[in-house]
């Protein structure tokens, strides 16, 4: 098999403003996604429709949607499922979930990112268990959920401020753990740099990280781990 | 079962300069590790010996060892296996490997970190396949190894400079992928900040990251993913 | 000839709010340009008109135009060619193109900067070949265009996020290569600092860089290289 | 009383290289301290001796002493008490302790700073209870000491890496709490910036902070709080 | 006594969007607070009402309230006391003040943060003495208030720009001193980083700090010190 | 004479929101100034009126005025002279100018800061000679003005971008030279940090600097130098 | 032709510690280079010898050589030409120069980087004209060399401190211009960040940049431009 | 007169490694200076000797001399006056002082920079009055010297840590004031960035600044101000 044919017509859809990579599912197991930032609502509708046509049997996803884009999608693609908090749209039926990802959030201000993780996990084929508002300032809230979290196939911890949550979690469980820093804080936190640095310097071994507020990338990775781990 | 007994004597070994957490294997599946930085050679020998005594049937690990610490270990714990490049020591027999981690390095200057990943993976119970010097400036070197890498249960990509390797890899495979930035560069790279920022901003979805040069944490996470994924 | 006469009247046009440097074309081969940021629409119209009068046989350029400035230009200088995406205006006839610059963009969000490069290249006297949406997450899209890019006299690679594109390109071709970082990203990217650092730390030798989003300066340099290279 | 006489002879001792502020104890309740950095061993001996002569009934302190300074002090001021880990010297008898400061350390690498806190607390007139190696990666170690810490009049928490310790402590107790970030880490932590940012962004209310590794200033403040709180 | 029961129903109120920690007053002596940023006006009203119901005999506090939230509170909880400058709301009767906190401000631009300190001090049970506009550029204004400040049980110094105030104060008094940097400046001050760095590098020993503009945390700490110090 | 009487009534005017320092002219030779940022239009009017009443024979100044403040001043203090570009107001008659300050600007975008310098120089008692748009990209424009600039008693150079102007000037003249960096640039310049760093690293000896865009402080210093230099 | 065969044996030499990319000259027109940092002297000798064997008719280059590596090369490869200032080694005969690169240095402290540029230019096939110590603090030195510089096919400007040189040069000539920032300064310049920022913010259009002290990359790019421009 | 002759032989001395700018005294009033960093002892001796020959009737200066350079100068130029603390050498007779510069230092650790200021002031033709160890933590020490400082023609304030000294001074006197930040601190102060930022954000108007530890540039500027101010 020739994996990287150059110039062949079949692996790209030319939308004028974008070259959709319809070969990605074959290469990586998951279809391309529409990244909403910097695209007009019309471009987003057009790209999501084209992605769906190329993967009729698999849900496709659009992320980082501004309110105007969400409104346009509601009008032109009424079959799409929209999540305003997570700023996402899903078109088509998600796969049956394989494995479970526990998505653990430190505070209520972290909810939008937590929603981005959860929706992505579903589209990428794993189940999701949301555990909210269990930050370390009230430690008993987290300890009460320890066994539930430890039973998942992968864990995503979402936290802002000083982001102590993943370090505490990392000392309590051995499940693969991804930490998502959020741009939530009370003063000078450099738009989430503090949480990010804290997660990368965790004293608990094996804590993995993504960019600030990047629930999408964490969701992709967690779903991949969970569905491989749990495959029959 | 009472998971967090306070004050009980059985879960901590008091070495005077440290409280060894011998309960960690029960909590997280893997024993504590001796972190060498800031400890004297004598403290490292003493801690490694105590850890080994607490886990006689499982290899234990010491990381970030200065040359003086490695020399002291060679003398006082001749049964230990030492890796000078990775600055690690292993005492006891590693578990039989379950699953495989592909450890992919961009350049020869990244080798020390790649060795830290590889040795850690072994101690934490997975097999390791090292793929070296396949940076993107000579793309054919990486493409030639694509199928080998895609066949692993988890992938760790080690790269410095602009760290393009994980982005290119992330577009070619769907295996869980951890990127380790290294403090290797040709000018002003802020001790690896450039590679770190690049990895966290990867255009490929699902790229996970650890701190600069932190091969240990990447190895822990990769081994956990691999041995869960591959469990029979 | 006395190249730096002091105080002579002929080399500057005094607009009150600005001293137009009408001697620049004689010194450097290209006329001065109107930089729109921080100027009122009326000032921009006045400056562009004066520049045009001083160089009647050569197109003159205005960059970084706010919507209000573009609207005012459309009204008062209907002969000007306006590019809303690139935020540019051109007044007068561009020179016949000498040589070709390939302008290569990683993603659709990079298009505005790519347009700034392309329009500048034209005004500064070279031809332009635009290659869009060929980021490294779908490597086959770039490989398919390799020969087309390698045939240019100069290449400008426009990319945000981790900016791996110029490193991959730099390993595939030997044409002079200018990388333009863009302020496009998915989280904490410091307004393009990540892309900038990545380009300056490219593992491919000979990658040249300009400031974040500075398509104008890249276009000037690329056009100068192309038209010298290709001169008969 | 004239609180700020200018030019009067009685409130300053001129050592040539320094003006000792012998009025400070009257103004603030505690005598001046010799800051060792940037002073020669001879200057340190001379300054400490002069301070002692000015406060014969009260211990005086020198901080941040290089090994050469400690050696010189051992030789010339044999009555001084030296702490090599804390890099401090004390000359004269410390006051009888009033109140208790709990000094809590996350890891063994934090011990030097913890020692600076402890010695300073003593010289400034409070008692000290050291609780070591109770980082959050093994949470049970900290929970086991909770009541002991809660019984103090002030708490100083010393931690590096991601510095989660004060946030967890701040949710468990209501005692005035000072967090000291240390320059201890496993990768890119900017010489303690990570710990510092984390402490300043703690989700637990009322966490106070000092500069990285500045155990001295934390000790001064904690002793002042403790001895006021506990005064009969 | 079992201090950290897991899963028990009595210590948390589930509001759907948040888990109120009603056990905090028992653990730390003060009830939880509603942090307004990132919450809708409706959520803030609901959370403040629930907190008040759980602590009927003790004032509860909401901070960082946007104008819309303040308006909603005025309408739905008319019993609440609102402070627009400090962006705070208080519901219920504050405790009788024990001890006094002097809150000292450098300039008029620092007033909003000074108000946040003062209101918090009251809710957390101490008295407050406000000393405004005594920056060091007119030193006599500060010197005139020296004795008044020195008589407090704790001092909070609020300052922006170069933040020299706490250093000067720290040399004049021995009362526990907390410095709050504000994001006030005349040019490039990095949103208060300058003041923050200055306070952390104070040449006066024992200066404690919180995050930029974080009057709340300073108020909590100062009140705790004052009411312990002054207890009969 | 008693220079720092504490508590005396004569040296401060209490406006409620501010303590006007009416003793400053006696101490430093120039009256206090109203800094507009963070003050309401009403506060600004009130403060400027009070300052004027305290110094009836000397112009007083208000800086950093928002459009609303300028409008309010135009209405309530019609005798005030307003400079919209410089965002300043002057009330009362400026002193007769002693000495001359040359204020040299690199580009048209630097004009607002240049105006702040010029107006301040006048209020603080020196004459001002404005030399605009003489940036180094067209070197002949600057060389043509060299003698004019060299004849001043002090020079203020205002420049953004790479801020090469003061370095070139510093090699051409020996007059005291103050460089003001401006937040003007074409890409990633960190709000003027680039210009600031460049000025502080000037290869020409004796270049003095103030904060970004701080034309006021430069004007104060330049006027003081000029009027001392030129005093008969 | 199949440009990216995967797995074929002919395009890589396996040295154990490195995979030499011997296909690079075919792809980009220039052979691979040995980057000395992080390699042992023995590895450098071995890699340079292998590169030379693969390109017997073309000079090959090793950069960033420590003194120990230079000494080892002098011993084992006596035919190599060594440049201690530029820390380079050349093995084999450089190509006949095509075109000329003017390498312009601001100060004597910039000489090492200037030498790296010059040697690289020669190995990559162009001629080099070195113009030293012409910084802008003595402008006449630069103006005296203007015509000589303007006659080159490409210009490399090497400067530290505030790096005004390329901006001044960019206003005087229209030749393609590459600026190399150096880590030379008099105080806080962040290891060359100042020069780097200044060059990227140059007010002269078309200034291209490389990383701090990266004379090698500038030399590669300049040689490519010069030899294309001047080709017959 | 032709001020910028290009190519004329008389205004530069070619030392091979440097082009001495012997025209500078004519242009700016003061001769060029030898900057020692990055030059060998032999180069420094050679440059200083050449400068002296070109200005036989005027002292010339070399700065930032390493111990090896000072030793070589002592040997080869015994007539030179050496200042080891200030790392300076002076050859020839300084001008008779005109005017006085008060150089005020905050602490003993600031002495080396204070010496650089003082020696430079002398060579550039003004008198110097040193006032040491008057930091604000003991305010009475500074107040006692207020009148002495206010009587100078220019003031240089040298301070590290939080650098409150110039702000306090700036409120007490109206003399032109230059603040020199030093790289002196107790923790994370970014090599003097804290002091630098503080000085640039001073609440006292008219504070001028130079780079960290750059006593030379401050001395040049202060001397120029003083000797102009005081000229008969």
Helix vs. strand class of chain A: alpha/beta
Could you name the CATH topology of the largest domain in chain A? Answer: Rossmann fold
* Gap from first CA to last CA of chain A: 28 Å
Range of strand content of chain A: 15-25%
Number of helices of chain A: 9
Task: Say how many strands of chain A there are.
Answer: 11
Largest interface between protein chains, with number of residues from each side: A-B, 41 and 41 residues
Count up the domains of chain A. 2
GO biological process, one term (chains A, B, C, D, E, F, G, H): 'de novo' IMP biosynthetic process
Protein name (chains A, B, C, D, E, F, G, H): PurE domain-containing protein
Domain PurE (chains A, B, C, D, E, F, G, H): 99-231
GO molecular function (chains A, B, C, D, E, F, G, H): hydrolase activity
Brief sketch in words of this structure:
The first copy, chain A, is an alpha/beta fold. Helices cover 35% and strands 19% of the residues of chain A.
